[in-house]
Amino acid sequence: MADLQEQIEKLKEFIEYTYKDKLHEIVRKGKRALNLDFQELAKFDLELSEQLIDYPEDTIRAAELAIEQFDLNKEDIRVRIYNIPKSQNISIRNIRSNHLNKFICLEGIVRRATDVRPQVTIAKFECPSCGNTITIPQVDSKNQLDVLAGIVTDSDY
After folding, report:
1. Assigned domain for 94 exists
2. Are strands 78-82 and 122-126 parallel, antiparallel or unpaired?
3. How many whole angstroms separate alpha carbon 9 and alpha carbon 79?
């Protein structure tokens, strides 16, 4: 993968060359996302478009960092990609391990939607006797009380 700073500079040049007016329009209208055409990116720099397929998280983050370098007085403009090549259209039943961490396109129908629920990432436990607190990262959906039980014993009181 290319150097991050080099990637940011290339993406900044691409956005300035192709989407500068659109970017200012987004800020003026109060929108929060810039839609980038994958085919335009491929015409501009084929290597950059290949990096997007192989390292989507890093490349999209680099594009967002490139947007931050424009003097827009607005933060958190997200990047969305459209017009993805047909080779990246995968049906759900054909997803395999080689697709992990790659940029793919899925088609489907949303049949049910639920509310977004917050997830605990760090929990603080306080001892009712002495007031001592212990911070424990939560690595899965269950509270790490068994970890706490191993740390705090009756002899600690």
Report:
1. yes
2. unpaired
3. 16
Domain count along the chain: 2
Looking only at the bridges linking them, the beta strands covering 33-37 and 78-82 are: parallel
Can you name the residues that pair with 114 across neighbouring β-strands? none
145: exposed, middle or buried (C-beta count within 10 Å: 0-12, 13-18, 19+)?
exposed
**Cα–Cα distance measured from residue 157 to residue 148, given in angstroms and rounded to the nearest whole number:** 14
Does the model's pTM come out above 0.90? Answer: no
Instruction: Supply the range of the domain harboring residue 141.
Output: 122-152
Residue 47 placed within a domain? yes
Distance from C-alpha of 14 to C-alpha of 38, rounded to nearest angstrom: 12
The encoded tokens of residue 114 equal: 């639920």
Q: Residues 67-91: pLDDT tens digits?
A: 988 877 777 889 999 999 998 999 8
The model's pLDDT over 107-150, given as tens digits with 9 standing for 90+, comes to 888 899 888 888 778 888 888 889 898 888 877 655 555 555 55
